[in-house]
Design goal:
The protein is an alpha+beta fold and about 170 residues long. It is built from 5 helices and 5 strands; from the N terminus they run ααβββαββαα. A 5-stranded antiparallel sheet has the order 1-2-3-5-4.
Length: about 170
Amino acid sequence: MKSLWAPWRLPYLKSTKPDRCIFCVGKSTDDRRRYILHRNRSTFVIMNIYPYSNGHLMVAPYEHASGLDALSSTALGELMGTTKLAIGVLQAVYKPQGFNVGINLGKAAGAGIEEHLHIHIVPRWNGDTNFMSTVADLRVIPEDLRHAYDQLLPAFHKRARGGSHRPKPKRRS
């Protein structure tokens, strides 16, 4: 029998699970406890507490909607703008070589919380699938969530204020 020592999971296993949707954060101000990194008028960025890789973020609208057609035009536009912002922050902080970005709409598509759509942003690196995933059906996440939060939060503040350094577009010869 294989065992993985994961004491950080015990508080979650013993905790009372919320009756409400985890994406219905409303006017909560405890962003650090909820791992909310950024808020806009219609959307927000939250860390996935069960990440597929370091820096796995989710962008969600405040509107409780199960499909894109249920969102207002404003929320839909801001959803993509916030996703772009989050990708820029992850590029600056983690320097991944690629991203998986996606929405699972409906249970059949793999939506864990199908009542409130959200976009997953998963940073990827060449060779980030290792023997643990292939042989042990296990993922290793080497960074603590609080440490990741503390690295990402200032980058969101900087980029949201327009203080980010963006590379100049390459000129065509």
